Protein: Pyrroline-5-carboxylate reductase
Organism: Brevibacillus fulvus
Amino acid sequence: MQIGFIGTGSMGSIIIDALLTSRSLQPSQIIAANRTLAKVELLAERHPGLVVAANNDEVVRRAEIVVVCVKPFEYRQALEQFADALTAQHVLITITSPIPLEDLAQLVPCPVVRVVPSITNAALGGMVLCEFGPQATESLRKRIYQLFSALGQPVEVTFSLLRIASDISSCGPAFLSYLLQQMIEAAVVETGISREAATFFTTQMVLGFSKLLEKEIFTLPELEARVVVPAGITGQGLIPLKEHVPGLFHEVFKRTHQKFAEDIEEVKKYLDSMKQT
Ligand SMILES: NC(=O)C1=CN([C@@H]2O[C@H](COP(=O)(O)OP(=O)(O)OC[C@H]3O[C@@H](n4cnc5c(N)ncnc54)[C@H](OP(=O)(O)O)[C@@H]3O)[C@@H](O)[C@H]2O)C=CC1
Ligand SMILES: O=C(O)[C@@H]1CCC=N1
């Protein structure tokens, strides 16, 4: 079985790297195309045997599962380049959220699936969110779970939960990175600690924190309660956090959902126009 990739930018290359470093696939089982050829050639240098396709059409003709890793507004052009080569035997996977699967399914002759990765999958961790289109069978579900379990923990999400699940699982690493960088910056400015030392302490704290959660030693509220010693120091630090943070993530999620709704509206316009041609 050959798996095809259309788009080997940030996420496409992370998925390919993860499938190969986990040894779930051999490089020769992957064929990939990218608009800028140099990016896919670089991947082939990293993974000798990976097949570089001249174009998207070639990927679809040679692969059974096709993973499309382009951005939502690049779909129209990409689909026009490969849709004619799809048959009922293919499986088309999209990794982006604002492409409704029912609309995509109407444009292609094969089952469609959504697999939303996370940057955490680069370390073979975190979640892989899966949504299955109208024609997906139980055996297809099993195949997709099996393939993508190499990247992280696959979980099925309905379209109604997709945005918030993806906000937490896929956007979350950026949100958390931003907050941690703010913590580092404040430490540097307020105390004169070097950025290098503050970054080291922060990184080690997060690694230890992850282990606590992984080993299920504490829940988040238990962990907080154990650190906030009555009349102690952490409680003082929490005062400004409790003053400023509540409400913040409401705004974060309102904005991601708003942008998602706008993207879907735009995407639906061009998918509808493609249905008519
Ligand atoms: N970044 C993340 O953490 C996550 C991203 N996603 C989703 O992944 C998708 C891709 O994001 P990301 O990888 O960050 O974006 P990138 O811009 O890094 O990658 C997109 C790639 O697609 C290529 N491309 C565009 N059009 C075509 C085409 N017609 N044929 C072939 N290749 C094409 C681009 O080529 P070129 O080199 O010419 O630009 C580029 O390499 C997004 O929709 C995003 O929602 C999902 C979960 C997490
Ligand atoms: O910012 C984005 O659009 C993508 C979706 C999930 C993570 N990154």
User: Anything to note?
Assistant: The radius of gyration is 22 Å.
